[in-house]
Specification:
It contains 4 helices and 8 strands, in the order H-H-E-E-E-E-E-E-E-H-E-H. The protein is α+β, with helices and mostly antiparallel strands. It has a single domain, classed as Peptide deformylase (Peptide Deformylase, Alpha-Beta Complex). Strands 1, 2, 5, 6, 7 and 8 form a 6-stranded antiparallel β-sheet that branches. Strands 3-4 form a two-stranded antiparallel sheet. Bound molecules: nickel (II) ion (NI). The site of nickel (II) ion has 4 residues, from helix 3.
Length: 184
């Protein structure tokens, strides 16, 4: 296991569509090593999701893990570590909801993005089984953000209002206090 380097916006590999993982490769030792590296990398950089292209591995693989409680994104509901191979998204609620997003490949910035608020996600797990789950709100945004990486897209592509692309420190200072409900 190892912490890998996360490539940043401007690296051409972040703009290339990733390729499908072949069924024979899903449970391979190499795939398990890669996922272990991604988990180490996610923990080391302190993120909530990571897609394989962000460590310059051009395959359709992403992991998401959200610790419950207060984070740099506000108060979040826990999502246990979820390893998604060859994921697909179905939009079940096309009404949009906006969230401030960040990305380990776009360090130091936050941007406000509106996306469909309800989705169903299907993916292959590390045992080769197809699984699915439903996600709403911020969690739906996180899955859409990570899976965008597999199509060579970044959250900045979706920012409608350029005034809503800000530095993280200024986000925490000026915007987050307005976003969060008063402490209970
Ligand atoms: Ni990202």
């Amino acid at each position: 296991m190892a912490v890998r380097k996360i490539i940043r916006m401007g690296h051409p590999a972040l703009r290339q569509p990733a390729r499908e993982v072949a069924p024979a490769d899903v449970g391979s030792a190499a795939m398990h090593r890669l996922v272990a590296d991604m988990i180490d990398t996610l923990h080391d950089y302190g993120g909530i999701g990571l897609a394989a292209p962000q460590i310059n591995e051009g395959i359709r693989l992403a992991i998401i893990e959200i610790p419950g409680g207060p984070t740099r994104y506000g108060e979040l509901r826990e999502q246990p570590l979820t390893v998604c191979i060859n994921p697909e998204i179905e939009i079940v609620d096309a009404d949009t909801e906006g969230h401030w997003e960040g990305c380990l490949s776009v360090p130091g910035l936050r941007g406000f993005v509106e996306r469909p608020r309800g989705i169903r996600v299907a993916y292959t797990n590390l045992r080769g089984e197809r699984e699915s789950l439903s996600a709403e709100g911020f969690l739906a945004t996180v899955f859409q953000h990570e899976f965008d990486h597999l199509d060579g897209k970044l959250y900045v592509d979706h920012i409608a209002d350029p005034e809503k692309l800000v530095f993280e420190d200024e986000y925490v200072r000026y915007i987050l206090p307005l976003e969060e409900p008063p402490a209970k």
